[in-house]
TrEMBL record:
<keyword id="KW-0677">Repeat</keyword>
<dbReference type="InterPro" id="IPR014774">
    <property type="entry name" value="KaiC-like_dom"/>
</dbReference>
<keyword id="KW-0597">Phosphoprotein</keyword>
<dbReference type="Pfam" id="PF06745">
    <property type="entry name" value="ATPase"/>
</dbReference>
<dbReference type="GO" id="GO:0005524">
    <property type="term" value="F:ATP binding"/>
</dbReference>
<dbReference type="InterPro" id="IPR051347">
    <property type="entry name" value="Circadian_clock_KaiC-rel"/>
</dbReference>
<dbReference type="GO" id="GO:0016787">
    <property type="term" value="F:hydrolase activity"/>
</dbReference>
<dbReference type="InterPro" id="IPR027417">
    <property type="entry name" value="P-loop_NTPase"/>
</dbReference>
<protein>
    <recommendedName>
        <fullName>non-specific serine/threonine protein kinase</fullName>
        <ecNumber>2.7.11.1</ecNumber>
    </recommendedName>
</protein>
<feature type="domain" description="KaiC">
    <location>
        <begin position="8"/>
        <end position="237"/>
    </location>
</feature>
<feature type="compositionally biased region" description="Basic and acidic residues">
    <location>
        <begin position="469"/>
        <end position="478"/>
    </location>
</feature>
<dbReference type="InterPro" id="IPR030665">
    <property type="entry name" value="KaiC"/>
</dbReference>
<dbReference type="InterPro" id="IPR003593">
    <property type="entry name" value="AAA+_ATPase"/>
</dbReference>
<keyword id="KW-0378">Hydrolase</keyword>
<keyword id="KW-0808">Transferase</keyword>
<feature type="region of interest" description="Disordered">
    <location>
        <begin position="461"/>
        <end position="489"/>
    </location>
</feature>
<dbReference type="InterPro" id="IPR010624">
    <property type="entry name" value="KaiC_dom"/>
</dbReference>
């Protein structure tokens, strides 16, 4: 198989990793996979071997460790990629420990070449490079061994993966000599810990540089390429014309007919202000021709369907007709890139034209590097706009009355439209109110409106007179419109 750059590669078959590698590991090349005990090296190597053998190829796993393979294989049997019927015809496990004891490092090189030829292996894993470093008489001998490994991979045209748990730096000779260097590590943030894969080097081919988070699941390793790298668009196409109804007639009139097609809009307001309710109205307009998707990170699907029913919105009918899909994830212990990939995959699966994400906050809290927030959300929005999807996000703020600005985290720059939802007090009555802050490249009614939630949904209070129209450029990006009526602060 060839990658986008035309170089022949061996796919790992690991979800997300081949995207990072631009198609897989280079053929005729040697890679070092480095990481401390428990980082996932053994699972990674075995998963690559089983995936390789599952494509009809032959893999060879060679260990330099003193213990037998039985214990390792017993642990692998609990993982979804394990397939007993491939051993030993397509996947063989052999030990080189006694060979190292009797014949030294050159004996190990001889054994690797001999067994790879005999079994016609196109993938070889060598587990325990640190053992070679410990027995080598000098750094020169160690470098010579690594050089021989590289030569065997090139001579036989196979892919070699070498595992080590040594914490040696980037200037160590083994990393400069091999074709590729992958590091597995744990990163912590407060009480949270996450697994991280860093592709430091891949000679002669393009790849997705930097670090990427991954999980070890019951099916093995899953890698989540950094969202801003995986969904980078060099140039966006022209925005499609047309509008997508919000599902609320009075709101559509203020927007000039609804949300601009293929846009991203933020509903920004405090708890109970109507963000989710507005999002449910938006999804209620879904059809079989233009399906919708609810990506929820707070309330369960059952509660949301019940809430929609209380508003007179029949989500059960939409679901039965495949006009609406619902994906729900707990807001706790997430990886932002995992959420992003899952959201985009769900949009593609449902061919969704309307997407409501409730909400944006869990994406931010799932980031171990908060400075990536705008990069991740912008990448998601750009990709979904390119798919022709109209997206509505929610985000909770702590100001129950009109917020002074939304400059925090550059929220306004992440989306095409911002709707502020807030409360107001008039004659000792607490009212819900919304204001349109911006709609990119579009006119809109800047006046604040009160609305109520009934058993027939949202009803927007009318305002007399001809509504003024205002474009985003005239209205500005950060200053919210002045609401009518007295405000309580």
């Amino acid at each position: 198989m060839s990658g986008e750059d035309g170089i022949r590669r061996t796919p790992t078959g690991i979800e997300g990793l081949d995207a990072v590698l631009n198609g897989g590991l280079l053929q005729g090349a040697a890679y070092i996979v480095q990481g401390p005990p428990g980082a996932g090296k053994t699972i990674l190597a075995n998963q690559i071997c089983f995936n390789h053998s599952g494509r009809g190829e032959v893999a060879l796993y060679v260990s330099l460790l003193a213990e037998s393979h039985d214990r390792m294989i017993r642990y692998m049997q609990a993982l979804g990629f394990y397939a007993q019927d491939r051993i030993p015809d397509r996947l063989s496990y052999i030990s080189a420990y006694s060979t190292l004891e009797k014949e030294g490092m050159r004996g190990v090189i001889r054994l690797l070449g001999q067994e790879a030829r005999r079994r016609r292996a196109s993938l070889v894993v060598l587990d325990g490079l640190f053992v070679i470093h410990d027995v080598a008489g000098s750094e020169l001998e160690f470098r010579s061994f690594v050089h021989e490994l590289q030569g065997q991979a090139a001579l036989l045209g196979l892919t070699m993966v070498v595992l080590t748990n040594q914490r040696r730096g980037p200037d160590s000779p083994e990393f400069t000599m091999v074709d590729g260097w992958i590091e597995l590590s744990d990163v912590t943030h407060g009480l949270r810990a996450a697994r991280q894969l860093t592709l430091h080097k891949q000679r002669g081919g393009s790849f997705m540089r930097g670090s990427h988070f991954f999980r070890i699941t019951q099916n093995g390793i899953v890698v989540f390429p950094r969202t801003e790298s995986a969904y980078r668009l060099e140039r966006e196409g022209a925005s499609p014309e047309g509008r997508m109804s919000s599902g609320v007639a009075g709101f559509d009139r203020m927007l000039g007919g609804g949300f601009p097609a293929a846009s991203a809009t933020l509903l920004y307001g405090p708890s109970g202000s109507g963000k989710t309710t507005m999002g449910l109205h938006f999804l209620a307009e879904s059809t079989e021709e233009e399906p919708g998707l609810l990506f929820g990170l707070f309330e369960s699907p059952e509660r949301l369907i019940g809430k929609a029913k209380a508003l007179g919105l029949d989500f059960e009918r939409l679901i039965a007709r495949n006009a609406l899909g619902i994906v729900w994830r707990s807001p706790a212990e997430n990886i932002a890139d995992e959420l992003a990939h899952e959201l985009i995959a769900a949009v593609k699966h449902w061919k969704a034209r309307r997407v409501f994400v409730d909400g944006l906050g869990p994406f931010r809290s799932a980031l171990l590097h908060p400075e990536r927030f705008a990069l991740v959300i912008n990448a998601i929005n750009r990709h979904l706009r390119a798919l022709g999807t109209t997206l509505v996000w929610t985000l909770e703020n702590r100001e129950f009355f009109l917020a002074n600005n939304i400059g925090h985290d550059d929220l306004s720059q992440m989306v095409d439209g911002v709707i502020l939802l807030h409360y107001a007090v008039e004659d000792d009555v607490l009212k819900r109110r919304f204001s349109i802050l911006k709609v990119r490249d579009s006119d809109f009614d800047p006046r604040a409106r009160d609305f109520i939630v009934t058993d027939r949904g949202i009803r927007v209070d009318a305002v007399g007179g001809t509504p003024p129209r205002r474009s985003e450029e005239e209205h500005g990006r950060e200053t919210p419109p002045s609401p009518h009526g007295a405000e309580a602060r």
